[in-house]
């Protein structure tokens, strides 16, 4: 069980990075910490996007990815950031780490489970990106579970309590609001880089029967997400009722505007698409992997 959130400002961050919820969030953590001298980037190599993705059967690399670290780059930010290290990347809560680093803040992101699972399937089985319906037969998905977690009616409450005890959690599907809420929580001003998708996924579009199978297998995940998203909204409402309302509102308006120098928020429009299309990558600032 996680211990309650701290009252004092954090000296560092540990990112509980659930796969396919937003590597780009590491940019926000680096930008926030004075100990991180290199800003506007996530990790180097595979952890931060130094791997290719497929477009029409061809592997391509984004110009925003770093294959080699800049001179003097410190992925650990003097030991104040745990996000890119190979030993902890995509790792979850570590009780001993928290005991040894009580002044660190734990942060994470949650994502709508159906689109999340589709994205996970595309990540685990790259062949699905170009496959037809036959490629989605469960017998052709080795090592890929269409269930995100082992949630059930017994441990759902524990999972929710642990989520609420984190110093911060955002919602991938509400990226702009999440970044602005992060700064309303920890202070500081966001930089334009924090609203970019620096590691877009090339996600598949499954047939309807696969979407329904995923929905059936993520019943408890979707319940947790619904309550978590409601709790996220409560935190937003609390900010809007406080002296931080003006800065939060200005942040959302600035970084949602098309003429603000950063991408417009895509999520409202995405909700109008069929489930099978909602996870398709958009241009800069689209749904984050």
TrEMBL record:
Q: Where is this region: Disordered?
A: 256-289
Taxonomically, which superkingdom? Eukaryota
The protein depicted here goes by the name Sulfotransferase
The species this protein was found in: Raphidocelis subcapitata
- Which lineage do the record's taxonomy fields give for this organism? Eukaryota, Viridiplantae, Chlorophyta, core chlorophytes, Chlorophyceae
